[in-house]
Amino acid sequence: MRTILLLTISNIFMTFAWYGHLKFRNVALWKVIVISWGIAFFEYCFQVPANRIGSYEFNTAQLKTIQEVITLSVFSVFSITYLGEPMKWNYLVGFAFITWRRFSSSTSSRIQAWLHNQLRPG
């Protein structure tokens, strides 16, 4: 659970670093590059420990799969709430296909069992 929390925080920082400047198109490009690099520093402060800690529980393909699913989730919330962009049904279908493909291609029964236990009511 700690790995997922760290990856989520990491993705929030990285999403702001990559896309946050789109709200400020009047700011010089070199300035937003510097600011984005500053934000990305904090992303690394969470990403590296997440991968290190997670490597004791998951293999690298599993870590990447978890990170991709988190990225799509964080980006969806970010684009709606921060950028004010509508979420269209075809985006959701595309995200679902990407998530399914990533999940089915690199997860083991161990992570599937872990997710099942996490999502089980009660």
Count the helices. How many? 5
Order of helices and strands: HHHHH
Largest sheet: none
Provide the structure class: mainly alpha
Q: Count the E strands.
A: 0
Could you give a short description of this structure?
With 122 residues, the chain is mostly helical. The protein is 78% helix and 0% strand.
What does this protein look like?
This protein has 122 residues and is mainly α. The chain has one domain. Helix content is 78%, strand content 0%. The chain has helices at 2-19, 29-54, 60-81, 89-106, 109-119. α1 (2-19) packs antiparallel against α2, α1 packs across α3 and α3 packs antiparallel against α4. The model has no long low-confidence stretch (mean pLDDT 86).
